[in-house]
Amino acid sequence: MDNPQAGQGGATPFTSVPIEITVSVGKARPLVRELLQLNEGSVLTLDKQLDDPVELYVGEKLIGIGVLEVVEGDGQGQLAVRLTEVVDLQTPA
């Protein structure tokens, strides 16, 4: 059964199901000895700069690219992501 509204904002039973999006801001590659020396207050340097794009994933599937922002107003200090590119989710990977 094809739903002509699917993917176009149409209401289906699944549109109200929450999903978890993971935002990847970078990777660290410490040596094992450095990892074993980590404790509270340690700093782990990532392979990205503050203004570099971040990747958004649902599970293992890349769904978009964005940039980090700080929310103004009531959510001061809270991070957000402004999407700069949305991956075509209709194309099989």
Automatic annotation (TrEMBL):
Residue ranges of every copy of the Flagellar motor switch protein FliN-like C-terminal domain listed in the record: 16-87
UniProt entry tagged with the keyword Cell membrane: yes
GO biological process per UniProt: bacterial-type flagellum-dependent cell motility; chemotaxis
UniProt xrefs under SUPFAM superfamilies: Surface presentation of antigens (SPOA) (SSF101801)
Pfam families found in the cross-reference section: FliMN_C
Top-level taxon in the UniProt lineage: Bacteria
Gene3D superfamilies: SpoA-like
Keywords: Cell membrane, Cell projection, Chemotaxis, Cilium, Flagellar rotation, Flagellum, Membrane
Membrane topology of this protein: Peripheral membrane protein
One GO location term (cellular component): plasma membrane
Subcellular localization(s) per the UniProt record: Cell membrane
GO MF, any single term: cytoskeletal motor activity
Family affiliation: Belongs to the FliN/MopA/SpaO family.
Protein name, UniProt field: Flagellar motor switch protein FliN
Organism (species): Sagittula salina
